UniProtKB/TrEMBL annotation:
Gene Ontology molecular function terms on file: RNA binding; RNA methyltransferase activity
One cellular component term from this protein's GO annotations in UniProt: cytoplasm
Gene Ontology biological process terms, A to Z: methylation; RNA processing
Domain of life the protein comes from: Bacteria
Record lineage: Bacteria, Bacillati, Actinomycetota, Actinomycetes, Micrococcales
Protein name per UniProt: RNA methyltransferase
Database matches in SMART domains: SpoU_sub_bind
Alphabetized UniProt keyword annotations: Methyltransferase, Transferase
Similarity field: Belongs to the class IV-like SAM-binding methyltransferase superfamily. RNA methyltransferase TrmH family.
Pfam families: MRM3-like_sub_bind (PF22435), SpoU_methylase (PF00588)
Signal peptide: none
Segments forming domain RNA 2-O ribose methyltransferase substrate binding: 39-123
InterPro entries found in the cross-reference section: Alpha/beta_knot_MTases (IPR029028), MRM3-like_sub_bind (IPR053888), Ribosomal_eL30-like_sf (IPR029064), rRNA_Methyltransferase (IPR051259), SpoU_MeTrfase (IPR001537), SpoU_subst-bd (IPR013123), tRNA_m1G_MTases_N (IPR029026)
Taxonomic source organism: Arthrobacter agilis
Length: 244
């Protein structure tokens, strides 16, 4: 029996099972787009996905996590994550052998947890309607690790949202998800925003537009103003940001 009294499903041991293959296919973009689902891997990402899942269940009955998988060893090492699975409204959890989890995961050395999650992106209109004060915009950022790092930094800085323009990397790419270290589940994410007109829309929402440039003459510390709403734009690794 599980912590909440539900019957516990048998341990998954077959690495060739159809369900294992279906989960593993989410490492590829076509399957992600078709199903509008992606993988969260490791204790930190799965923990944050579960927390958001439970919050949304409380708010509107919806959920983020479709299903989750974990090894017995990982559940013992991370009792805080195991406790979340025992709460009312938590998604189903299947215990697996390490080999089965490795067959599902996109990493060479998985950390014992995999969750299948629904897309969490938000329409731009919904973000602007909340009157955000700090937004990070990724302009054609194509490296998954860099995109994830910016999302994580925006989360740490207290940003109200992250916007990715149309040519930017897929934020549901497993490498991007891993590099966010759970921050993907902390703040609204807008995907595929059209760059043309975006600056005007942000200014109309009352935001000051700034562009991040490693060779810029003004530091962010010099621009601190608690009364101003900000939008920071970060360009791709080989892109020169255009004058807004």
């Amino acid at each position: 029996m599980t912590a909440d009294g539900r019957p516990q499903a048998p341990l998954m041991t077959n690495t060739q099972a159809d369900r294992v293959k279906e989960v593993a296919r989410l490492a590829g973009r076509p399957s992600r787009l078709r199903r509008r689902e992606f993988l969260a891997e490791g204790p930190q990402a799965v923990r944050e996905a579960l927390r958001l899942h439970l919050e949304r269940r409380d708010d509107d009955g919806g959920g983020v996590v479709v299903e989750a998988y974990a090894t017995v060893e990982a559940l013992e090492r991370h009792p805080d994550v195991a406790e979340l699975f025992g709460r009312d409204g938590a998604p189903s959890l299947r215990r697996t052998t390490p080999d089965v989890l490795a067959a599902m995961a996109s990493t060479v050395t998985p950390q014992g947890f995999v969750a299948v999650c629904r897309f969490v992106d938000t329409p731009l209109e919904d973000v602007l309607a909340t009157k955000p004060r700090l937004v990070a915009v990724l302009v054609e950022v194509r490296d998954p690790g860099n995109a994830g790092t910016i999302i994580r930094a925006a989360d740490s800085a207290g940003a109200d949202a992250v916007i990715l323009t149309g040519a930017s990397v897929d934020p549901y790419n497993p490498k991007t998800v891993r590099s966010t270290v759970g921050s993907l589940f902390h703040l609204p994410l807008v995907i595929g925003a059209e760059l043309d007109g975006l600056t005007d829309r942000l200014r109309e929402a009352g935001m000051t537009v700034l562009a991040a440039d490693g060779y810029g003459a003004v530091s962010l510390d010099d621009l601190q103003d608690a009364s101003a709403a900000r939008r920071f734009g970060a360009g791709s690794e080989g892109l020169v940001l255009q004058e807004p």
